[in-house]
Amino acid sequence: MAIKNQIYSIQLLRAIAVSLVVYAHSIDLAQYLQLNNFQASYKYLQNFGAIGVDIFFIISGFIMLYVTTQIDSFPKIKIFFTKRLIRLFALYIPITVLLIFYKHPDSTIILKSLLLLPIFDSGNHFIMPSINVAWSLSYELFFYILFTISLIISKKYHNLITIIILLVLVLLGLLIHSDEVHFVFITNPILVEFVLGILIGIIYTSKIKIHLAIILLMLMTAIIKIIMLINNGYANISEANFVLDGSGSLLRVYLWGIPSFLLVTSILFLSQYQYTLSAFEFAFVKKTYMLIGDASYSIYLIHTLFFSAIIYFHEFFSKIQNGDLLIFIFLFSAIIAGCLVYIFIENPLLNFCKKKLLN
């Protein structure tokens, strides 16, 4: 039951993370369409959903540790890395190719979009991929590569090696001041969030049972911190540009990474107490967040494209006076669209790629 609850917890966290990101962009869409709404004007709520990216980074750190506990040979490392690439690129490449045909970007953007890593970037400017939200995937891919290299170096100590590499890179970035794009990318403090995920994984796989009172305290602390951030603000850390140039990354790790760490840890460790999950055990609720968790990558990739399509119907939406209601309509419709993409496109693509590349 513990393993199943852990899976449910991860899917719940993924559902929360992607819903937060889509919610932030739903408010942005309402603002773009000039729809009057309370949510955009309430304190610092509008951009707070971007914290979903930080939750995703921490989940990635945990998952990478969790799925490599039984890897003990080079062939298994190769399979592991291939699966990571399939997961990342199976849906991403077809969507990107379609956008390339539609937007006709220059060759540099095409190469960046297809490879994700800033290999062809120059100067101090990080080139955004054709799918703008895919900037975060560049860090995911970089983390996958470093983690795999650590596995090759030592199957026993790969987690420690990965943590050391990431922290040394970040420390170099803090000590050596440079705005050269490649240096900023590989030393970006946002990488610490992957370390936080690995630390959660180390504790979790050690079978340590944290007292329920401590877990609930962590959860309440995360919730209180989130409420305070929405009310008091968080500077400019919600904007991707301030992460990519490194100027807002360290502050983002402090303001958003820590509560994200507490949230992920508390929800994961609640799975050790089966009865505490009862609120999420209703069949409909469970099926819903499990599906959204499964489809979180599809939702993340396509929701801004889906919103771009909605803009074509701006005259229709402008007739609806309740902008706050429309924000939730945008949110739920994007999630549904992403789930459909997952069921009918991403999942078949994943199965096809695994059959061709892993057999």
How would you characterize the overall build of this protein?
The chain is mostly helical. It has helices spanning 2-32, 51-66, 74-89, 92-103, 107-115, 135-153, 158-175, 181-186, 192-205, 212-232, 240-244, 249-270, 283-294, 296-311, 314-318, 323-358. It has one domain (2-358). Helices cover 72% and strands 0% of the residues. The model is unreliable at 1-5 (pLDDT under 50).
> What is the overall number of helices?
16
Class computed from helices, strands and strand pairing = mainly alpha
N-to-C CA distance: 31 Å
Q: Tell me the overall shape.
A: globular
How many domains? The number is 1
Counted beta strands:
0
Low-confidence stretches: 1-5
The succession of helices and strands, N to C, reads: HHHHHHHHHHHHHHHH
Helix content percent band: over 70%
What's the gyration radius in Å? 20 Å
Question: How much of the sequence is in beta strands?
Answer: under 5%
